[in-house]
Design brief:
By secondary structure, this protein is an alpha/beta fold. It contains 5 helices and 10 strands.
Amino acid sequence: MPIASDADHAAVIFGASGGVGNALVRAVASSGLFAQVHAGMRRQTDDLPAGVRPFTFDLMNERTVAEFARSLDCPPTLIIVATGMLHDRAAGIAPEKSVRTLDPAAMARAFAINSIGPALVAKHMLPRLPKGQRAVFACLSARVGSIGDNHLGGWHSYRASKAALNMLIRNFAIEIARTHPMAIIAALHPGTVDTALSEPFQSNVSPEKLFTPAQAAHQLLHVIDGLSAADSGGLFAWDGQRLPW
């Protein structure tokens, strides 16, 4: 993995129970470049590499995020928020094909998970970034959240909630640059990954563009490694391309 060594610092991945999040934890842990690797999830699991420090959190419960942030005894130089929701079969939530199908409860949940939750993580984790050195806070976003790249419409709640996340990332980048000039705040588009999130929508994806979680994790970490403070506030695809807001 091409991440530069941060042997005296920590890496934190929120959303470690998801396909991409779990793969990110494994890739970061196997690198041996961090003194601590923390993996956050809603429920404890044994599906983590040896030495990884699990913690539980709930995006809908700010207290759980704040408690973890306070517990860190090693400054984080890599924080990745790998959470998100596109659909929920159990709750009857699916991407809208028409404005006629908009449901306020479904929209509220999309914004809670895709926008507000990551913002609360930023609220409590950005102050923990060390000053005077390179540090990265990245959130998994989506290309469909790009307003400038939207040529198809539809998927109203998901698109809008990811567009809101992208704006928050831009805001946070402007704010933190005043105190942490070497910090990088970025939104990342992982492409279509073979996980439960994308499973209902994979039929039109060519095999070479359907990534395994391990491939996605490697590609995202490679993108992160290539970012500089001048890139802070941007939305970047899995291949390093900067996408329009």
